[in-house]
Design brief:
This protein has no helices and 11 strands. By secondary structure, it is mostly beta strands.
């Protein structure tokens, strides 16, 4: 099992910045990809950004140039630096991790985990 714990959400004025963190913990696992999703009230959850173990990143068009995702492989932690925030960025942000978990037999299986979510509110 892998646990994801997020932090860093809060209330910020439009144009401001926030930094989200997500730390993965558990045993016998390796992370393939970590990313952030968000869900605004009344809307579906959508992908925001992701980063592979090798450092390749992917961003949704609506955050390109404003958000930066990074990770610390040694600490199994992913960060989302959010700048130039807009009221439409208001949402609950969820950390996501695709991992390989080692079985007792020594083989691996892939699993996906979600954090509990952290709320980001951007006031106009």
């Amino acid at each position: 099992q892998v646990q994801l714990v997020e932090s860093g959400g809060g209330l910020v004025q439009a144009g401001g910045s926030l930094r989200l963190s997500c730390a993965a913990s558990g045993s016998d696992f390796s992370i393939v990809t970590m990313g952030w999703y968000r869900q605004a009230p009344g809307k579906q959850r959508e992908s925001v950004a992701s980063v592979t173990h090798g450092g390749s990143t992917n961003y949704a068009d609506f955050v390109k140039g404003r958000f930066t995702i990074s990770r610390d492989n040694a600490e199994n932690t992913v960060f989302l630096q959010m700048s130039s925030l807009k009221p439409e960025d208001t949402a609950v942000y969820y950390c996501n991790a695709e991992v390989l978990i080692r079985r007792f037999s020594g083989t691996y299986y892939q699993a996906e985990y979600w954090g509990q979510g952290t709320r980001v509110t951007v006031s106009s």
